Each structure stands twice: as structure tokens, then as C-alpha cells.
Amino acid sequence: MASLYTPLHVAAARAVGGDPKVEAPPRPELGDFAVGCFALAKARGTNPAQLAKELAAAFQPDEWLASATAAGPFVNFRANRAHAFGWIVQAALRGELLPRTLGAGQTICIDYGSPNISKHLAYHHIRGTTIGHSLAQSFRALGYRVVAINFLGDWGTTHGMVLAAYEKWGAPGLTIDTLNDLYVRFRAEVPDAEDQGRAYLKRLEAGDPQATAMWQRFRDVSWAEFEDVYRILGIHYDDLNGEAFFWRDADRIVDKLRADKMLVESEGAQVVELPGEKTPILLLTKDGTTLYATRDVAAAEFRERTYHPTRSLYVVDRGQSLHFRQLFKLLVKMGYDWARVCEHVPYGLVRVGGKKTGTRLGNVVLMREVFAIAEDEVRAKIAEVNPTLPADVVATVARQVGIGAVVFANLAPQRDKDIDFDLDKAVSLDGDSGPYLQYSHARCASIIRKANEPEAGDIDFALLAHDAEWAVARKLLEFPDAVVRATAACEPHTICHYLLELSADFSRWYTLGNSDASLRVLVDDAPVRRARLALVRAVQAVLREGLSLLGIAAPDQM
Q1: Is the pTM of this model over 0.90?
Q2: Across all residues in the chain, what is the average pLDDT?
Q3: How many angstroms separate the Cα of 148 from the Cα of each of 139, 196, 303?
Q4: What is the pLDDT of residues 266-316, one digit of tens each?
Q5: Which superfamily does CATH assign the domain made up of 107-361 to?
Q6: Burial class for 87, CB neighbours closer than 10 Å (0-12, 13-18, 19+)
Q7: What is 433-455 written as a DSSP string?
Q8: CA distance 215 to 220
Q9: Which of 115, 273, 327, 415 has its CB surrounded by the most CB atoms within 10 Å?
């Protein structure tokens, strides 16, 4: 279904009446917009194909639509191209293609990233981080109030283990590397690591000043490292309340569950049984320490009380699907009507070299290391393709393109698919890659620089008469639909694939001039050149915004 966020789609819907879907016909030669008559025919008690014929026969051209024809149960419309070109180009240049007020008065909470402190920000963290950031950018572009949340994993048995390891062995300097090494060593060398970790957590929860001070140092060191990587990605969080912020609510939550006769004992632990679930959800261990489910309940309450979200999204890998299903059922059982706004946004695993990475496995690939390697790979490619670029420009562009390549490689596949990271494919300037999109944007910028002409106000868009030019304009018209669908389904890959299609349509049009000089953008005919340059500027504007929604820079040179 195409959106009704452009006047052309609205005109097509109005010509049929009711509240119809407006979509693209299966083949461009059939028309520009297709409206099915099924629902309207049912309401009128008539045949859809017959109704389509009647509506097409009664159609009167207007400023937006030039003609209508019936094709079975569909009415296919052709746009008034000259008028449509003018609106599409100007809307793109003014940033008015997207429905900027769609989310007015609505709040979206997005919990994403959320690494554990005292561990590296490893490459396997990037998928959730980039998906969450792209969703935040996209919702903001549609006028929603977005609360970006980093629910730091800064409490629990894991951190008790690191504290116990530090007390046992110490470390030469306090860095994220030494903290991570302590954790890996403790799990490998201490037979009762879990028990010792829980014992240290109990000390923390009892307010032990030495344990608390040490924990705070570990958190500060970890956040400084995380923040550096987030800065590279252009990510800013609005809410940094991690698990430690909420553990003190555990007694209140447990007391409520006990008073409501929901809490039962199971093998010494405190649990709640849930409808449709074979296993209960654990709230307290047998030794009385909190679990992350307890803290998640407190965090959900806090977000509802503080932000009143329209949707509360948890961008967490699909391995946590059971946890979130149980969490949301628990919130419903507790009588929270607002639990319906909570959504788990699961994503597939990231594999490097065919293997899942993880701190516990000791085979970590660091996120910043991948960025550095990608940057080096891209620097060499740029120097080969454009050897005249100054060294400082090459350095800047290499970083933008290297990071963009890695981000795009994680966003382009469907969210629920596992992905095998292939660096060579990711940094390619050809094919379905981030650098290809960035190169398309840079090509637009290069054409505009070469023209060296100010934006013209007197443009005759009727001069854009080639079908390849109209194909580009039609693709620009699909931008709002792509972004709205991406946010509705929490699928950034929708935007990725839209931008690839736009770049392909632009390339097909632009390269026509290689075999026919009259079809070049920078032709001698000044009025035609102005019209074609306006279309190039529109493509550049949409590529730039589309890339920004993905969290990717749009360099002007490559």
C-alpha cells in the first residue's frame, strides 16, 4: 500500500472515493497509481471490474492526474507529469516529502544498545545498536518525540564476578581491557564462579561501601569507553538509567506480587506463573538477590510514569524472546493496561567468520577495531578511484564510508535474519552496499559542482520528458511510504532497499548520456539543463536524508 502523504496519492484516492489503497501497478506501462475497487464495490453491491470501468469513464483530469483507465477491478491513473515533477522536486529540496507531523503528540521509547559494563563493546553489539539508532532517527523525522534509552547492564551476578575477580587478583591499571580479562579469567579458573558472583552481588545490594565504590569505578571506566564508540556512530542517548537504577524497587515489586497472591516459591526462588507458559518467570533467587526480570518490571513502570509512551520498543536479540514474552505477560497480570504498548523488536545474530561472538567465549571482535579495519580498506579504494583528493579529505571520507559500510551491512538484511559479516562485501563501492549509496550521493554533488549554477527558480519541468526521468521522480515519491513502513514494522532494511532502488534508477537515467549526448544532465540547452539539475538536486536531498535515517554520513566527494 502506498501512503496517502503526497497530493498525487490523495488525488487518486479521491477520484475513486471512500478510503482505498493507492499502490503502484505491477508494471509501469499500466500507469503510475492503481486503486482497487473491491471494498467500494462491496459497499455498493456491485461488481469491482464494472465499477472500475464506470469510475475510469467518469474521471475528469485535474492538476495532478492526467488520465484513468480500468484494468479489471483496478483503476489505473497517470500523473500530470509536468505538475508532478515540480511538486516532487520542490518537496524534496524543502524536506517536505516526509509527513513531518505524523507523530505529533506521540512518544516512542526505544531501548537499544544496552551493553554490560566491564566488558568490551564488541562487534556483536552493533546490530541492536544500529537498528535502534535508525528507528530513533526515523521516528524523529516523522515528528514523534523519541526517548532513546541505554538500559546499561550494570547490575547482577556478572558484575559480582568481576568485583570478586578484582579483589582476588587486582589488575595493572583499570581499563575496559583489564576488566574484561578479569571476567573471562574468573569464569575459566574459579569453579564456583556463579556462587561467588551472587555473594558479591549480595554485598552490593546490602550497601557495602567498598564494593559500591569499586562498582562505580568499573561503571565509569566502561561508560567512557562506550561513549567513545557511540560518538563515532553519532549516537546520543536521552536516558542512561541502567539496571542498577532500578534494583531498589525489587522489594516493592515483590511485596505487590505477594500481596496480590501471584508470587510462589519454586526450588527456593520466588516466581510468578504465567498463562500459556511452561516455565514461570523468576523474580528473586533463592538467596534473595534480584534478577533482571525484577529490574525490567521497575524500568517499564518508570518509563510509563515518566514518558507515557505510545510505543515502548525493546530492541534486543531474538534470544531474549521468551524473557520479553514473559515480562509483558507479567505486566498484564499485574493489571497494567499500558503493557500493550510494550514491544520486543528482535533481531538475528551477527556472526564473524561463521561463529557467534561473545565475551564468555573469549573470541571477541571489538566494534572499534572493525571500524578501523573498514576505514583502512576504504582509504585504499578511495585513493585508487580518486587519486586527486587531498589527504585530509581522504581521511575524513574514509572514516565516513568505512563506518557507513559497517552500519549498512547490519541494517540491510531483514531484522530477524542472522547475518555473516563480510568486510570485503561491506566496503565494496559496487553492489548493494553502503559505500554504493554514498557514492551515488557524491556523484550528485559532483554533477552540481561541475554545473556551477545556482538553483534556478524558472524551471520548465515539462522538459523532463524521458521515461527514465519519470522513473526517478516516481521513486522519490515513494520515500515517505518507505519511511512510514520502516517505523511501523521497526524494519530499517525497508529504507536501505528503497535507497538502493533510488540509486539504481538515478544511475540508469544518468548513464543514458554516455551513449546519447542529448540525454546528458549537463546539456548545452540551458532550460533542459536547469530542469535536469533540479532533479539531480532532489535525488541528492533524498539520498542525504535517507542515509541520515540509517545513521550514515553522506560525503560530497569520494
Answers
A1: yes
A2: 93
A3: 11, 34, 11
A4: 988 999 999 999 999 999 888 877 788 999 999 999 999 999 999 999 999
A5: HUPs (3.40.50.620)
A6: buried
A7: SHHHHHHHHHHHHHHHHHHT-PP
A8: 9
A9: 115
